Amino acid sequence: MKGHIYVIGMGPGKRTGMTAEAAEAVNACDVIVGYTVYVELIRTSWPEKDFFTTPMRQEIARCRKCYEMAEAGKTVGLVCSGDAGIYGMAAPMLELQREYPEAEVTVIPGITAANSGAAVLGAPLNHDFCVISLSDLLTPWAVIERRIRCGVQGDFVMAIYNPSSRKRADYLRKAADIMLAAGAEPNRACGYVENIGREGTQAVTCTLAELREAKVNMFTTVYVGNSRSFIQGGKLITPRGYEL
Amino acid sequence: MKGHIYVIGMGPGKRTGMTAEAAEAVNACDVIVGYTVYVELIRTSWPEKDFFTTPMRQEIARCRKCYEMAEAGKTVGLVCSGDAGIYGMAAPMLELQREYPEAEVTVIPGITAANSGAAVLGAPLNHDFCVISLSDLLTPWAVIERRIRCGVQGDFVMAIYNPSSRKRADYLRKAADIMLAAGAEPNRACGYVENIGREGTQAVTCTLAELREAKVNMFTTVYVGNSRSFIQGGKLITPRGYEL
To answer: Which chain regions cross the lipid bilayer (chains A, B) (predicted)?
Structure first.
């Protein structure tokens, strides 16, 4: 008998950010697989489960391990922060299914950082928006640059993931320069949120010119408003268009 | 004493799609406000609450009612399907706060249809994406058209909200024509999901040419892949870029 794999989005990183559906999926699993930090969060609430942790940068090995355990009859939960389908492991897991056609895979959605950070900051995504990762580990920078430019030209609100890392300390500044060159005004309403759903959550509103100078890290989610976004009472708001 | 307003995203429409945080916010409220259909969902689980329902198209009156009740000392929950900050009531509620500066407003995020539908369809949003509503009730069609074009030019995956209604039966076809004119291939991998999180959830994968002819309604969420998206085993997948 082949087992089932659940790819589970855990939301912003605290137990109460999970949906009941995600908790039910964890309940149904024999073994929980993931990065050490997320597995520890699960272990606190479900100490009786089996756990299998792998270090970062071994994503595909981790997916294969899930299939191997499923083929041995286990029900397996691969846990991801946020939503498993947004820069997460849902796609590679489903891609690999061609090698393991008998295992069943179910993706359980979770609240991704764009949404959980937006709620902290106000309502920046309340109109058409795009989500762009500045990580060029798996994506050529030229593609990222084109997307930033099209995001501005389309007057989308932009939610930026992975705005910085040790090796890419200046990427947010580079992204801001592309936005300015594409026509975004230096006083465009922006903001960023650190440690969403964790201790020390911090929300900052600022202009695009100030964002260019901001110190952010890989856990920061950055928001660049559209041409109608504004800051009011410390909140970043993109109007939906109602007459108030 | 002024009360507190929670703007609560309920997720895809079933009780298990809510987060624990959203359920805690409902617990904390004296009165729950919203469209009849979402209020009924809450009433099933929290029959002891007070409820205040308003018909559609009275969004701003509903927000003002929340502030009036908060000023009378009540803790008020405005419930929205999906995420309150994605085409929801978070922005107008926060905008109105300038008229009611003493009430406190907290936005509780929920899983928006882009994410919950994506999980049903596979992993279509597993790379940079944009979310566009085809409703021109509050947005000029020229703005929507430009965003669709920029979405294709940026090679974003696109999640389309409000793809159709009785008065706009041909909008998805118009959107598909803009995409094709902007360079998306007729065999671009696409899909759509109906009744996400409700009875009769249905996921369909298709090409962009087929999507152009699809019969969808205002509750359908539509996905147009990027140039690397593909359909495998009935799932719409946008690869993250890993070597498998």
So the answer is: none
Domain boundary among A111, A131, A152: A111
Q: DSSP label at B162?
A: S
State how beta strands B189-194 and B221-224 pair.
antiparallel
ipTM of the complex: 0.96
- Distance from the B20 Cα atom to the nearest Cα atom in chain A, whole angstroms: 5
Q: Mind listing the pLDDT tens digit for each residue in A65-83?
A: 999 999 999 999 999 999 9
Which of 50-89 (B) contact A at CB < 8 A?
Answer: 59-60, 83-88
- Residues A86 and A177 reside in one and the same domain: no
Q: Are B22 and B108 in contact (CB under 8 A)?
A: yes
Task: Name which of B123, B153, B244 is nearest A85 (Cβ-Cβ).
Answer: B123
Instruction: Please report which confidence band the pLDDT of residue B1 belongs to, taking 50, 70 and 90 as the band edges.
Output: low
What are the contacts of A20-23 at 24+ separation with CB within 8 A?
A20/B15, A20/B16, A20/B17, A20/B18, A20/B19, A20/B20, A20/B23, A21/A108, A21/B14, A21/B16, A21/B17, A22/A108, A22/A110, A23/B20
Closest partner residue to A115 among B86, B93, B240, by Cβ?
B86
B99 and B150 co-located in one domain = no
Q: Each residue of B166-196: pLDDT tens digit?
A: 888 899 999 999 999 999 999 999 999 998 8
Which tops the pLDDT comparison, B143 or A217? Answer: B143
Give B159-169 pLDDT, tens digit per residue: 999 999 888 88
For residue B59, the domain's CATH number is: 3.40.1010.10
Q: What residues 8-47 of chain B have any CB closer than 8 A to a CB of chain A?
A: 9, 11-12, 14-21, 23-24
